[in-house]
Specification:
Elements lengths: L11 E3 L6 H13 L7 H14 L3 E3 L2 E2 L2 E4 L6 E11 L9 E10 L3 H15 L2 H9 L3 H9 L4
Parallel strand pairs: 1-5, 3-6, 4-6
Antiparallel strand pairs: 2-3, 5-6
Length: 151
């Protein structure tokens, strides 16, 4: 599975004024809700929060990949959010996070889900790529950057 298969252009946002981990997770849940007509933002938020309770999904370098498993869905969907200022997200490097790629995956998609997370972590480890994302203020350009790679 490639990111271009799971991230719709309308699921890329820039510049929201969010100041906490909880607010970011709530907003990402609302963004993902648009992709799933039979799920509420609260259900999605609960799935994302349950995963965060196991350990932060903050990778470092200002990046987090909040994700959750959801029973009853058949496909993975993603949402990307770029903030003007980072928020405390309990990242491994204790730095604020300003780039978020949230994933909601089917409950049974274990191997595929782990492979996607590994590819995304590798993509977000590239300093030049992160700089390109941060320099952009156009969601369409960010979508193109995210989906044109191999992840």
């Amino acid at each position: 599975m490639l990111i271009k298969e799971i991230l719709a252009p309308k699921s890329v946002e820039i510049g929201n004024d969010l100041h906490s981990k909880k607010a970011v997770l709530e907003h990402l849940a609302e963004m993902l809700e648009r992709e799933f007509t039979d799920l509420s933002a609260l259900e999605i938020f609960d799935a994302l929060l349950a995963r965060e309770r196991l350990g932060s999904t903050g990778l470092g370098k200002g990046v987090a990949i909040p994700h959750g498993r959801m029973p009853g869905i058949s496909e993975t969907r993603a949402a990307f959010l770029q903030l003007p200022e980072g928020v405390d997200f309990d990242a491994v490097d204790n730095q604020p996070v300003d780039l978020f790629l949230a994933l909601l995956v089917p409950e049974e998609a274990t191997d595929e889900h782990l492979q996607m997370l590994a590819r995304l972590a590798e993509m977000f480890a590239q300093e030049g790529f992160l700089q390109q994302l941060r320099e952009q203020q156009d969601p369409e350009v960010i979508h193109e950057l995210l989906t044109s790679g191999s992840a």
